[in-house]
């Protein structure tokens, strides 16, 4: 029976070995990406005013106001169906809002969704990976679509190593575990060092190595001025990843607090209070 590595056309495949050799040569010859000229920082980096999204008659997001300064990280919390992913999809330019005004890094998302995608890095909660493509092919596609300058390979290699995906760079993602897919989705969102990073469930099913790599990446991008929004059900990790947290319920913000105040058992209890009960 063919091993999993064989099925995924692992590095022993001569064609891939040849490609890998070419890539190593290119990587060695091309300098790392030059430090980007910092663009004028809009204030705030993420601005959401009275956002409303409806699917049919039911409102999924029902009048959300949100403001995230450059270099800040905010956690989006709330029960299943609270409207977190829908909010992030609108910010990423992937879903048009029903009403309201949304800006990312000074770009009006409703008026210019393509412009918004240029400044945003988005890790969706599900999907986004091509089963028959390898991580390296995903990265090549992302670099081409974003027209990244020569040298992106250096950052791509570095990110793959940091997220412990270096050895799997040439395996098709169809054979990836859930956590591996999550780690690759974070890498893809961060490749172009976006001004706004949107992470939907980045820690879901991810091992401690991937969790630490994600937390480090968030800190590093924040130092460079990136604004970060993280949606997750894992409260202790949201506390570590962010400085502020907002709680959504039925499409509305029902609470906001410094993330540190949601730490430990007392914080968890406060959070549970904000979540509301059944039908709350
Ligand atoms: N494409 C869609 N079509 C119809 N309804 C949708 C669609 N996407 C989301 N919804 C509905 O919008 C509401 C908010 O969903 P959303 O996915 O934003 O919640 P969430 O807070 O991210 O939940 P979870 O924590 O389970 O991921 C839910 O009632 C959901 O059923």
Automatic annotation (TrEMBL):
Instruction: Enumerate the spans annotated as ABC transporter domain.
Output: 46-275
Matches recorded under SMART domains: AAA
Tell me a Gene Ontology molecular-function term this record carries: ATP binding
Keyword annotations for this protein, in alphabetical order, are: ATP-binding, Nucleotide-binding, Transport
Q: Which family does it belong to?
A: Belongs to the ABC transporter superfamily.
Question: What's the protein here called?
Answer: ABC transporter ATP-binding protein
Organism lineage string: Bacteria, Bacillati, Actinomycetota, Actinomycetes, Sporichthyales
């Amino acid at each position: 029976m063919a091993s999993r590595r064989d099925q995924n056309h692992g590095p022993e495949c001569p064609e891939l070995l040849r490609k890998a050799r070419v890539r190593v040569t290119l990587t060695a010859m091309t300098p790392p990406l030059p430090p980007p000229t910092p663009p004028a920082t809009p204030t705030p980096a993420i601005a959401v005013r009275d956002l409303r999204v409806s699917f049919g008659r039911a409102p999924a997001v029902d009048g959300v106001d949100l403001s995230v300064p450059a270099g800040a990280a905010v956690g989006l919390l709330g029960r299943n169906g609270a409207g977190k992913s829908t909010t992030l999809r609108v910010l990423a330019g992937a879903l048009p809002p029903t009403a309201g005004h949304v800006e990312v890094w000074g770009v009006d998302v409703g008026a210019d969704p393509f412009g918004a995608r240029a400044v945003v890095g988005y890790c969706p909660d599900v999907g986004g990976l091509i089963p028959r493509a390898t991580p390296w092919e995903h990265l090549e596609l992302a670099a081409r679509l974003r027209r990244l300058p020569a040298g992106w390979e250096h950052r791509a290699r570095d990110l793959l190593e940091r997220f412990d995906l270096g050895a799997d760079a040439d395996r098709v993602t169809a054979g990836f575990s859930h956590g591996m897919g999550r780690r690759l989705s974070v890498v893809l969102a961060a490749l172009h060092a976006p001004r706004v990073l949107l992470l939907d469930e980045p820690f879901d099913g991810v091992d401690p190595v991937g969790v630490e790599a994600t937390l480090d990446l968030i800190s590093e991008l924040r130092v460079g001025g990136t604004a970060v929004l993280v949606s997750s059900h894992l409260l202790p990790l949201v506390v570590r990843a962010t400085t502020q947290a907002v709680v959504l319920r039925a499409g509305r913000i029902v609470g906001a607090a410094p993330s540190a105040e949601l730490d430990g058992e007392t914080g968890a209890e406060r959070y549970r209070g904000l979540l509301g009960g059944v039908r709350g």
